[in-house]
């Protein structure tokens, strides 16, 4: 079974006919655009690909050394701050968004670091994760950066998200049950329930995301519920059976 990593808002067969009433409003959330290679690069020793829509740096490939970096984390954070203009968690005070290290794996040949972007204009301690908005950094054994993939999503309109105005996890699950048709997922409970934001036309939308196993047909539904209204914003069967 292969699990898709994208979040298309349109419904996927074979669950479409039984869930289309629950997700008539198919919102197209913001995501990175297609890439174009630059003819000249401001990053020495690297090939750079830009977003065709926003001109943001999306991919960097080459060998980039960071003077004075003692660890892979230090090298990656310096690059993200100086070359991509991303705010680090340590500097998050007053910032709309910031990134923090979410996962790190090391081997004899180097390291791979994954940074998660958070939305900071909220009273939730530590901010809210922006779903799908990540940066991956590959480094060699000498802490030289070899590949950077930037999937962060631009925010053009910031709003303050207050926790008191949003559904808690129980309320979000209840809203999802009410929105789903009678037969969907009746043999299972919700799993991987998480709160965060998605970006719609440059503005952050607080949501809950959750999964539910279905029996007939077999699948894994990924459900996105508005944390403000309880409306189901998207349903997708993310299980692909071969």
Instruction: Tell me the count of domains.
Output: 2
Query: What is the average of the pLDDT values?
Result: 84
Biggest beta-sheet profile: 7 strands, antiparallel
Q: What is the count of DSSP helices, taking H or I runs of 4+ residues?
A: 3
Fraction in helix: 10-25%
Strand content of the residues, in percent?
Answer: 35-45%
Q: What string, H for helix and E for strand, traces the elements in order? A: EHEEEHEEEEHEEEEE
Described by the principal axes of the CA atoms, the overall outline is: globular
By DSSP, the count of extended strands is: 13
Question: What would you call the structural class?
Answer: mainly beta
Spatial arrangement of strands, main beta sheet: 2-3-4-8-7-6-5
Low-confidence stretches: 1-25
Radius of gyration: 20 Å
Query: Terminal Cα separation, in Å?
Result: 7 Å
How would you describe what is shown here?
- By secondary structure, this protein is mainly beta.
- The protein folds into two domains: 2-29 and 160-240, no CATH class; 35-150.
- The chain is 11% helix and 40% strand.
- The strands form three sheets. The chain has a seven-stranded antiparallel beta sheet with strand order 2-3-4-8-7-6-5, with helices on one face.
- A hairpin with a 5-residue loop joins strand 11 (219-226) and strand 12 (232-237).
- The termini are close together.
- Residues 1-25 have low confidence and may be disordered.
């Amino acid at each position: 079974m292969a699990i898709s990593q994208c979040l298309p808002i349109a419904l996927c067969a074979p669950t479409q006919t039984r869930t289309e009433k629950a997700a008539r409003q198919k919102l197209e959330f913001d995501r990175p655009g297609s890439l174009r290679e630059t003819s000249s690069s401001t990053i020495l020793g690297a090939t750079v690909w830009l977003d065709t829509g926003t001109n943001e740096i999306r991919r960097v490939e080459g060998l980039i050394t960071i003077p004075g970096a003692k660890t892979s984390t230090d090298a990656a954070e310096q690059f993200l701050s100086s070359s991509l203009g991303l705010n680090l968690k340590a500097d998050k005070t007053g910032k709309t968004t910031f990134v923090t290290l979410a996962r790190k794996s090391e081997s004899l040949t180097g390291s791979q670091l994954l940074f998660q972007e958070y939305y900071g204009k909220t009273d939730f301690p530590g901010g809210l994760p922006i779903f799908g908005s990540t940066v991956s950094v590959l480094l060699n054994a000498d802490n030289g950066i070899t590949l950077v993939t930037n999937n962060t999503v631009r925010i053009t309109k910031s709003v303050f998200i207050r926790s008191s105005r949003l559904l808690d996890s129980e309320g979000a699950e209840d809203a999802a049950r009410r929105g789903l048709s009678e037969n969907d997922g009746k043999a299972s409970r919700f799993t991987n329930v998480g709160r965060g934001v998605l970006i719609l036309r440059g503005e952050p939308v607080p949501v809950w995301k959750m999964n539910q196993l279905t029996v007939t047909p077999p699948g894994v539904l990924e459900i996105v519920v508005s944390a403000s209204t309880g409306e189901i914003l998207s349903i997708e069967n993310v299980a692909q059976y071969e």
